[in-house]
Amino acid sequence: MSTVAGDAPLSELAHSWLYWKNTSKPSPNTLKARRADLVAVGHLLVASPVALEPDRDPVDQVLGPLTPGDLHRDAVVAAFAAYADTHAASSIRRARSTWHGFCKWMIVHRDALDRNPIDFIEAPANQKWRPKPISEADLAIVIAAAQTPSPTARNPWPELEQALCAIFVGAGVRVGEAVALRAGDIRRSPTEIAKLNVVGKGDKTRTVPLPPEVVAVIDSYLLDRTERFGKIRNTHPLFVRVNGEPLTTKVIDYLVTGWFRRAGITPPKGALGHSLRHTYATMLIEQGGSVPELQRLLGHADMSTTQAYIDVAAAGIEQTAMANPARHLLIPPSD
Is 109 in the active site? Predict the structure, then answer.
């Protein structure tokens, strides 16, 4: 083992690893998640809690006092056991993956570890992912709620909420994708259906047809926005807040929560805005959409993810079939 690498601050090695990983062009969310995982588990590896200073990098503050020598089996197992007490299985799997990759890099590229201590950590079993759509009847109520401003909002902007809802239920975009949309991403044509260019996971761009009803709602919002803030350029964010600043995922979650609350409907656990995307996809499948078509519309890299929508739609079909009143006519009369 190299003495220099083995004694180097873990923060220095972490920055080098993150820089090395940048060659694969990770999304901002992926990069943010890796840093968060390093800091969260690192907090549990240090001897005493670190009070983070807002003007300093958390990676430096938490991992600075540590060296690869601190990553012995018992310490790492204890840290992940404590992490597991307060985090979901998916978060544990992600943190384990982050640290496993970091430690593997230290072995291969820096000769700073003899073996990977994360090999001693057992990851929670993967549960089959299932979409969380809402019913068509509930969707109608949620859409109506999105068109009605909150009575308690200080600065309601109904046109914004209507347009945001339209982009979810009419184009099936992810929450993060909605935040990243630019005004110029809507491509209009006098002879064809409008298209929306969406930058999805892995910075992959897909094109989603926009129904004219969705375009009309968005145009109403853009007209009102122009009156509020002036000319909109193609490079400007498509969605902004009432103060003109770009919309954030946190603000979207707040707005969508309000739609469900005003509708009197409990959103699927852990879904919120994504439940509208899931509903969009499930309804397309029920209308005869194919798996390859849906995969392109949703921007799935793996067709097995799209297949999950088929399974959910099939479950709905089964429930409909079981509601057939003719079933009761087939029950033999009792003696």
Answer: no
Residues 16 and 164 placed together within one structural domain of the fold = no
36-67 residue pLDDT tens: 999 999 999 987 777 889 889 999 999 999 99
Report the CATH number that the domain containing residue 250 is assigned in CATH: 1.10.443.10
Domain range enclosing 55: 3-120
Asked if residue 9 belongs to a domain, the reply is yes
Considering the candidates 34, 174, 225, 278, report the single residue annotated as catalytic. Answer: 174
Classify residue 271 by burial, with Cβ atoms within 10 Å: 0-12, 13-18, 19+.
middle
Q: What is the pLDDT of residues 103-151, one digit of tens each?
A: 999 999 999 999 999 999 998 877 666 767 788 899 999 999 998 878 8
Residue type at 218? I
Quick check: 169 and 280 in contact, CB under 8 A? yes
Q: Is 201 a catalytic residue?
A: yes
Q: Indicate the residue type of 238.
A: L
Whether residue 314 is predicted with pLDDT greater than 60 in this model: the reply is no
Mean pLDDT of 298-314: 64
Q: Are residues 47 and 196 in the same domain?
A: no
Q: Residue 95 has which token pair? A: 């943190």
Active site residue 83: no
Residue scoring higher pLDDT (103 or 303): 103
Question: CATH number, domain at 115?
Answer: 1.10.150
**Active site (annotated) includes residue 277:** yes
Neighbours of 113 (CB within 10 A): 22
Q: Where are the beta strands (DSSP E) in the chain?
A: 186-187, 194-199, 205-210
Whether residues 27 and 89 fall in one domain:
yes
